[in-house]
Amino acid sequence: DAGVTQSPTHLIKTRGQHVTLRCSPISGHKSVSWYQQVLGQGPQFIFQYYEKEERGRGNFPDRFSARQFPNYSSELNVNALLLGDSALYLCASSRGQGILSGNTIYFGEGSWLTVV
Amino acid sequence: QQPVQSPQAVILREGEDAVINCSSSKALYSVHWYRQKHGEAPIFLMILLKGGEQKGHDKISASFNEKKQQSSLYLTASQLSYSGTYFCGTPDAGGTSYGKLTFGQGTILTVHP
């Protein structure tokens, strides 16, 4: 079975531009989460979507938005890009909604975003 | 609050053992361990659940001490492939924790021949 797939893998944008990152979860997984990973740090939670509804949001500005489609794929949008948005953006999928009971989260390869 | 990992880095020779610790200032419901190689995605290793259930990798073991709010990952007879950065992630204790893990700062493990 295919894992979590993300596109594009690498992209370079200019300050002030907009970017859209895409993610397809593992087949059968209904939950998609987005994380930002800056070099040398652990991933930081941005959003979770389950059954097309936002279920969790991290401490990120309103320039960051996301949505989930009927086929459970997802998009992350970032407006008015800043240099500090340069990072690896990871999409993760899981079968269920919550993780307190041990629902495993699987990560995709990520999209490397460089803002110049 | 971010869990704290120790040590920050460890260097081993093949066949040696290592222990990576993850401590939290808040109550833990579960601890999720991942390994990430440079330029790649974090790979799931193991979940440790409150109550003692453990799910994951058969060549790596871990412990979960709920009272001390900490977990340890044990890497025995290390192989070159074990090199990478190890992260522990913990869900929010208070809410329903909708797929949100808070990760530690990572432990860089390097295994030499």
Q: What features would you highlight for this structure?
A:
heterodimer; A: 116 residues; mainly beta; Immunoglobulin-like; 7-stranded mixed β-sheet; 4-stranded antiparallel β-sheet; 0% helix; globular; B: 113 residues; 11 strands; 53% strand
Outline of the structure:
Chain A contains no helices and eleven strands. In chain A, 0% of the residues lie in helices and 49% in strands.
The CATH architecture of chain B comes to Sandwich
From the alpha carbons, calculate the radius of gyration of chain B and give it in angstroms. Answer: 14 Å
What is the radius of gyration of chain A?
A: 13 Å
CATH class of chain B: Mainly Beta
Largest sheet of chain B: 7 strands, mixed
Task: Choose one word for the global shape of chain A.
Answer: globular
Overall pLDDT confidence of chain A: 92
Low-pLDDT stretches of chain B are none
Shape of chain B: globular
What is the name of the CATH architecture of chain A? Answer: Sandwich
Helix and strand element order of chain B: EEEEEEEEEEE
Query: Count of DSSP helices of chain B?
Result: 0
Helicity level of chain B, as a percent range?
under 10%
Work out the count of structural domains of chain A: 1
Mean of all residue-level pLDDT scores of chain B: 87
Given helix and strand content, the structural type of chain A is mainly beta
Overall helicity of chain A: under 10%
Q: How would you classify the helix and strand content of chain B by structural class?
A: mainly beta
CATH topology of chain A: Immunoglobulin-like
